[in-house]
Amino acid sequence: MYNTQQFLRLPEVISLTGRSRSSIYADVRAKRFPAPISIGRRSVAWNANAIADWQQSCISASKS
Which Gene3D superfamilies does UniProt cross-reference here (predicted)? Predict the structure, then answer.
């Protein structure tokens, strides 16, 4: 049985996180944000669950 995953393209990630393209890629390089997944020769996307986990970790960190 396959577990279907949802992929988010960069405009959706920007909309969901409120972050700019440059800050997303800077944090990917610094390992503070989920890395994109190659979905084609010149296409990348982010796993929706990884973005949701990142958002939850930000919420949890703000409560500490």
Answer: 1.10.238.160
